[in-house]
Design goal:
Elements lengths: L1 H17 L24 E5 L2 E5 L7 E3 L12 H5 L21 E5 L5 E5 L2 E2 L17 E3 L2 E5 L32
Antiparallel strand pairs: 1-2, 3-8, 4-5, 5-6, 7-8
């Protein structure tokens, strides 16, 4: 009996571990990824999308398609996966071709100040575990698409392309979604 209970517990642990991978095309996201890379700074990095917004330490910033200028639609579990880029005040360090005239700060529900660029509230992605990663690009999550932004303040609108090792596209187009 003891061996059976231990076997069931081990099987459950294995299933839990297998289900915790960060796959932007399913609703299971890890919540333990470090968010210490969220910086109150604006810079840019070179990427396959050109120069895109990032923190001074190189972590890429994203915009959420359904946000409005000065208004975030990402709270609760969304903000755990897509942490907002916050600031203590409007004195934000800027470098790397970022245009100061496009930078502003607004107050989120709850009182936190969030940085926006050209009217796009900024976020990081917990799936980007190192500088210059763009794993959140084109992901459809929490009711809209997420895109990197160039230094001119324009979203780079391209579809997400997951590595084949972690995601296989469906064989039919029924139910599939693509970026607009």
């Amino acid at each position: 009996m003891k061996a059976t209970i231990l076997g069931i517990m081990a099987g459950g642990a294995l299933l839990t571990a297998c289900g915790s991978a960060a796959n932007p095309n399913n609703s299971t996201f890890p919540t333990t990824a470090p968010t210490s890379h969220v910086q109150s700074s604006l810079s840019s990095v070179s990427s396959k999308y050109g120069r895109i917004l990032a923190s001074s330490s190189g972590y890429v910033y994203y915009m959420f398609q359904i946000d409005a200028p000065g208004k975030s639609a990402c709270y609760s579990s969304c903000a755990a996966v897509w942490p907002p880029v916050t600031a203590v005040n409007s004195n934000i360090p800027i470098s790397g071709g970022v245009h100061k005239s496009l930078v502003s700060v607004f107050t989120r529900t709850g009182g936190t100040k969030q940085i926006e660029y050209n009217g796009h509230p900024l976020y990081t992605y917990e799936g980007d575990t190192a500088p210059k990663l763009t794993n959140g690009q084109g992901v459809n999550s929490y009711g809209g698409y997420w895109y990197v932004i160039n230094t001119a303040g324009k979203p780079i609108v391209t579809a997400y392309s997951a590595p084949s090792a972690t995601y296989s596209a469906p064989s039919s187009t029924s139910g599939a979604s693509s970026a607009p």
